[in-house]
Amino acid sequence: MTPLSKYEDLNEEELMRLYQDENDLDALGEMAILLLPKLASIARKRFSDKNLVDEAVQEAWIKVIKNAKSFQFGSKVKTWAYQIVNNTYLDLIRRESTRGYLSDDLAPLENRADNSAEFAENSVNSITLNAALLKIPKEQAEAVVLIFQDGCTYEEAGKILDVPAGTVKSRVNRAMPLLAEILRELDPRSWNQKHA
Amino acid sequence: MSEKDDFVEDLFRNLPKAPPMSELDLKRHEKMIRSHIAEMKREQAKKEGSIFGRFQTQFQLAAGFLVVVGGISFATNQGIFDSKEDLVISMPTPEKPGAGSEATEGVGQENSGTSQTPKPKNPDGVEEFESGATNQSDIDKFINNTGLDYLSDIQKAKQLVKISSSPLSISELPQAYGKCAIELGINKELLGIDKGKYDGTNVLAFYYGSSRSTASIWIVEKPCIKLENL
To answer: From A182, which residue of chain B is nearest by alpha-carbon distance?
Structure first.
């Protein structure tokens, strides 16, 4: 689907300006569409399950549309969208955990014959890690995810979280031993294997 | 970093990633976004329409009351009912494209339905900027019917079309026009409307802004589909 001709050459900031100044809803839609590849790229780094990626992307663009009025010029729309997406994904992980997805699906995943051993192990790791992330303070979890899962630099993460790079670093440093401890409790078998 | 930290880092690095979202999935999301926006537009129009409708009903009641009171006092004072001409409001008649400013002025006077003092003309022979719209007959004057094609004759159209110097009262416009102006977001700065064409298609041109020289034009197709902003 091609963008509506009027908006073809406009970037996210210009589309946002059109929406905020003239209440141009088409511009808002085009801006969300322009952000889609970025949202999808973040989602696939966060989730291994295709359906969850799909759900996360949809939830993210709905929030981008819903919160567009509150965007303040001075920062980049992409950074602002990343902040929204970051919260959305952590919320989604939290929701999934209450649905029982994270705990109940551990056993079936391990037993699924059609999965290679490596895939099964990584999937279990993913679920365990997500569960561990929910047990540490949110700002620490955000910092860890941005640095290790999304591959952001401390500076980039700082911009997204609206804190100095040094703060991101100290949050990560505080989070790591906590996570290690929680992971050892959640999955002692793999911890022991690793440290045998 | 300690050994424990390395373990956590390794876990993160080795996490399985979903395959990149396919073009098809991206298109599906695009489609969903467009439907979502269309739904938002419908809701907005409905919301604004209901406010407008309420206002219009109140206006109609007030206007009806004034007509009745005015009629009674006129009959009482004059005792005659022989002049019905004042009550006749003629509808705008279509004008042949390119008929010139003279014809447009004719339409304007026809539309008013009341006697008009000739408006001063500028050196180009184009009628001067109209004074602010205050009543229904004035409003009709600003609903033009040049029939001109805005793709090829925009300058001519701009010269011929009569627009108000102050924003028109939306509640006095035909409902469809008022609703469309609200949808376009120009209800507070609407200066005039022209029935014309755009690339051969019948369109309405909504003139809006703060003055003739700075006015912009929304070209819309029936019922209120945006075609171009000039």
So the answer is: B8
- 3-class secondary structure, B197: strand
* Contact (CB<8Å) B15/A36: no
Domain boundaries, chain B: 1-82, 89-229
Q: What is the CATH number of the domain that holds A19?
A: 1.10.1740.10
A34 shares its domain with A107: no
Per-residue pLDDT band for B119 (boundaries 50, 70, 90) equals very low
Full-prediction pTM beyond 0.80? Answer: no
Q: State how far residue A158 is from chain B, nearest Cα, in angstroms.
A: 19
| ipTM passes above 0.85 | no
Q: Which residues form the domain of A88?
A: 10-99
Do A87 and A146 belong together in one domain? no
pLDDT of residue A109: 42
* Residue B128: C-alpha distances to residues B143, B146, B161, B165, B189 (Å): 16, 17, 11, 10, 19
Asked if omega into B223 is within 30° of 0 (cis), the reply is yes
* Residue A20 distance to chain B (closest CA, Å): 12
CATH number, residue A114: 1.10.10.10
Distance of CA B49 to the CA centre of its chain: 13
> Which residues of B are less than 8 Å from A122 in CB distance?
14-16
Closest CB from A36, A44, A183 relative to B26: A36
Do A139 and A191 sit in the same domain of this protein? yes
Shortest Cα–Cα distance, A45 to chain B (Å): 6
